[in-house]
Amino acid sequence: MAKDRGDHNEQACKQVDGEMTRVFELFGKRWTGLIVAVLTEQGAYFADLRRAIPGISERMLSDRLTELATAGLVVREVDAGPPLRVAYRLTDAGKAMEPALKELSRWAENHLPSGGKGCPEQFRG
Amino acid sequence: MAKDRGDHNEQACKQVDGEMTRVFELFGKRWTGLIVAVLTEQGAYFADLRRAIPGISERMLSDRLTELATAGLVVREVDAGPPLRVAYRLTDAGKAMEPALKELSRWAENHLPSGGKGCPEQFRG
């Protein structure tokens, strides 16, 4: 990130930097971050992912997985079965997000009060 | 985050954890992350923020700032002027996001190729 310039008026390209823009083009969409967070723990079948993310629709999950695959964060693997199932896992680029997700999680623990919507404490890993 | 359970089928509340859910309820919306990233550098007037984030509309910026204020990350301060202007800055909770944003930025630098949409290199801070 750019250094503090201590001046509200300096005009030389005071735009948000390219890395942040790229991060939030991807993660500034509903569900994307949660999908990566679930896959950080382990690979998952499509149905597992739906179950792990309350409220996500099949269509949304499918669209987000496609975007994540296009960005090179997720790979799709077909399990010949039977039953034929599609599994998803993170690529090395996806796995490399773990430290950032941990920082975000730590931050939320300290600074975003729980609205009681998460997983009940006794079930947490 | 929960530990790897090494088992696709374990069912005991395999839901994404509460912290991640809270983070992405807020940041899984277009623009929110970029607004915080800009304010991490310094406080800014509304017009500065619009200029810093190419493509954001007045309405979107206003809505997102309201959400960030409600979440306790941003405060709004009226500069009596003239001209009367409204400035925004991060609270301590907002400032505490900096390590997470830095991790995300580092990650993007290494793993999200630039599409050439960011600030031209010669202007970066």
From TrEMBL, chains A, B:
Keywords assigned:
DNA-binding, Transcription, Transcription regulation
Q: Does the keyword Transport apply?
A: no
Source superkingdom: Bacteria
Cited Pfam families: HxlR
Residue ranges constituting the HTH hxlR-type domain according to the UniProt record: 13-116
Q: Protein name, please?
A: Helix-turn-helix transcriptional regulator
User: Which organism is this entry from?
Assistant: Streptomyces rugosispiralis
